[in-house]
Design brief:
- The structure is a single chain.
- With about 210 residues, the protein is of the alpha/beta class.
- The protein has 2 domains: about 130 residues, Response regulator (Rossmann fold), CATH 3.40.50; about 70 residues, Orthogonal Bundle (Arc Repressor Mutant, subunit A).
- It has 10 helices and 6 strands.
- It is globular, with a radius of gyration of 17 Å.
- InterPro entries: CheY-like_superfamily, NreC/VraR/RcsB-like_REC, Sig_transdc_resp-reg_C-effctor, Sig_transdc_resp-reg_receiver, Tscrpt_reg_LuxR_C, WalR-like.
């Protein structure tokens, strides 16, 4: 059973999320938080598998809450299409997934399952916006030196950029899923990244820009 904490300051939205997620046979909503500060406190107390986190909340926003929970709970950020700055913040904070608020119930449930099993998730629309915004920067930050990766790690890195799960990578590269997890961990460490979502964005951006 996947244990989920829902954090949103709007009661109607929170109720809707609880109803949707609670209706899934493999998901249990263990708590509701009305702001980021409560989300952090409740996550540390209840130890959910996934925190479904709104961004704009009082007392502590979802970005600060995500940062506070880094290494403790996996966070699925609910974002709106037109607020890219928050997505950047959540990306830097190490969020495990990003989903648009207008996504349907099935997409939300699937996203929680993806994050719970340790895979990253990012809405294709958000990915396109992120890459576009990175490209628009007057002085783009240099890409990490990808030569630090072994050939196998480069293959895993590329697969992350395609949005593949650990299971899909394992099948495609003919290795055990546990081995994939090890490679993903090494890729993140070598490139100084906090999450596989960051790796996916970097992999896609690296296709459009040469490494230094």
């Amino acid at each position: 059973m996947i244990r989920v904490l829902v954090a949103d300051d709007h009661a109607a939205v929170r109720t809707g999320l609880v109803l949707i997620l609670g209706g899934a046979p493999d998901i249990e909503v263990v708590g509701e938080a009305t702001d980021g500060e409560k989300a952090v406190a409740m996550a540390r107390e209840l130890e959910p598998d996934v925190v479904v986190m709104d961004v704009r909340m009082p007392r502590m926003d979802g970005i600060a809450a995500t940062e506070a929970l880094r290494g403790h709970s996996d966070v699925l950020i609910l974002t709106t299409f037109d607020v890219d700055e928050y997505v950047f913040g959540a990306l830097r904070a190490g969020a495990a997934g990003f989903l648009l608020k207008n996504s349907d119930a099935e997409a939300l449930i699937d996203a929680v399952r993806v994050v719970a099993r340790g895979d990253g998730l990012i809405s294709p629309a958000v990915t396109r916006r992120l890459i576009a915004r990175f490209a628009e920067r007057p002085e783009p930050e240099p890409l990490p030196d990808l030569d630090v990766l072994t050939p196998r790690e480069r293959e895993v890195f590329a697969a992350l950029g395609r949005g593949e799960s650990n299971a899909e990578i394992a099948t495609g590269l003919g290795m055990a899923e546990a081995t994939v997890k090890t490679h993903v961990s090494r890729v993140l460490t070598k490139l100084g990244l906090r999450s596989r979502v960051q790796a996916a964005i970097l992999a896609r951006e690296s296709e459009n820009r040469p490494s230094p």
